[in-house]
Structure formats: structure tokens, C-alpha cells
């Protein structure tokens, strides 16, 4: 019995391989759980009830109100500047009511009143010029040409997005890589067990031949 147990004991290399496999399995499961609770579920909720539509610009205007933004000019250098509020009102193919256009979900959450947040510069005049350039773009280059926009009737019925932050590719990678980690861990454990089992059988057959 002592000899039989000794045969089934794992070597140091096999033990490390098993530990690596179980570590990858645990990491894959924890990643799926963490991403599902903290990121994937909110992303799916944002996409729920949403869809795409054709948008046409109705009006482009700057409000008199200015908003604050934070600029960085070095490791220990930060400050506050201001930018004018640009609003782009559009009509969608799903509704005749005007809607406010936003760059994406992040911009909508940061400033739901405006359609564009410029890269924050130290000089307020530079921020104003960036907003004015964007205003001319929507008035002159886009004009009345239809373009694809995205909406969510449940969460923000009066707003549409120019692009989605959480698209299908991001959601796929969010699920794919933890799953790959989990499967690689399972594969390592299974291969180690199979290799040990084959080695034990080969040793047993070898001993029978010598008897």
C-alpha cells in the first residue's frame, strides 16, 4: 500500500502545474463575477431598450451658460477652466420630437445639458474656439445630411448618442478573456491528471513484466 501511495503522489513539477491550473480557474471565475457585477450588467442595462436610428440636425446653438472643466499641466499642476455649452438638436427616424445629441454615454453622464465637451485647455479662449469649430462642423459639414445615432427609450428618452461606449466588441471581450482563462486552467488540470494517470499505468505495466 505504501508503494502504491508513493506512485500516486505528484512530483514537484506536477504540483506546480496543478496549482497554476487552479489559480487560472479561480482568476477566470472571479473576473467573470467582478466584470458581471461592476461593468457588464450596467452596460447591458444601458443597451436594454435602445437601438439605432437615422438622425437629422434641427438646430445648432451655443448657450450663454459656461461649464467648468479641469486641465492638467504637469504632475502637480492642475487648474479649472471654462467652456461654452454647445447644443445639437436632432430629429430621429423613430420620433418627431427633437432630441439632444451627445458624443457618447460618458459625455452624457458628465454633462447632460451639452452636446460636446472640448479637451480642457488652460485658456478659456481656446476652449471657446474648439466649441465654435464643432458648431461649424455640425452646421456646415453635416447640415441636413442624415447620420446614424443611438437612443435608449427607457433611460434617456430625450437624448441620443453619436456613438456607443459599450459596443458589441467590448462586451464580447469582457466575456471572452475571463472564459479563456478559466478554460486554460481546466485544461492544465485535466492534462496534468491524465499525464499522471498514464505514468502510473505505465509503471504498473512495467512492474508486471518484471515479475
TrEMBL record:
Biological processes per GO annotation: detection of calcium ion
A Pfam family recorded for this sequence: CaKB
Ion transport in keyword set: yes
GO cellular component: a single term: voltage-gated potassium channel complex
Keyword Zinc-finger: no
Gene Ontology MF terms: calcium-activated potassium channel activity; potassium channel regulator activity
Membrane topology: Multi-pass membrane protein
Keyword field: Glycoprotein, Ion channel, Ion transport, Membrane, Transmembrane, Transmembrane helix, Transport
Parts of the chain that traverse the membrane: 20-42, 175-199
Main location: membrane
Localization terms from the record: Membrane
Listed InterPro entries: K_chnl_Ca-activ_BK_bsu
Protein name: KCMB4 protein
Gene label: Kcnmb4
Amino acid at each position: 500500500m505504501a508503494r502504491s501511495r508513493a506512485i500516486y503522489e505528484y512530483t514537484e513539477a506536477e504540483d506546480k502545474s496543478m496549482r497554476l491550473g487552479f489559480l487560472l480557474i479561480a482568476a477566470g471565475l472571479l473576473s467573470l463575477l467582478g466584470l458581471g457585477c461592476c461593468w457588464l450588467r450596467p452596460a447591458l442595462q444601458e443597451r436594454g431598450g435602445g437601438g439605432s436610428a437615422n438622425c437629422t440636425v434641427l438646430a445648432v446653438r451655443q448657450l450663454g451658460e459656461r461649464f467648468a472643466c479641469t486641465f492638467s499641466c504637469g504632475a502637480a499642476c492642475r487648474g479649472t477652466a471654462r467652456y461654452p455649452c454647445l447644443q445639437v438638436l436632432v430629429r430621429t427616424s423613430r420620433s418627431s420630437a427633437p432630441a439632444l445629441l451627445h458624443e457618447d454615454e460618458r459625455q452624457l453622464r458628465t454633462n447632460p445639458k451639452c452636446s460636446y465637451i472640448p479637451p480642457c485647455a488652460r485658456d478659456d479662449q481656446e476652449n471657446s474656439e474648439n466649441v465654435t469649430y464643432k458648431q461649424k462642423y455640425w452646421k456646415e459639414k453635416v447640415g441636413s445630411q442624415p447620420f446614424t445615432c443611438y437612443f435608449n427609450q427607457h433611460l434617456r428618452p430625450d437624448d441620443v448618442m453619436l456613438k456607443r461606449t459599450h459596443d458589441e466588441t467590448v462586451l464580447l471581450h469582457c466575456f471572452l478573456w475571463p472564459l479563456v482563462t478559466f478554460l486554460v486552467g481546466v485544461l492544465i488540470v485535466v492534462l496534468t491528471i491524465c499525464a499522471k494517470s498514464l505514468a502510473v499505468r505505465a509503471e504498473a505495466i512495467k512492474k508486471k513484466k518484471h515479475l
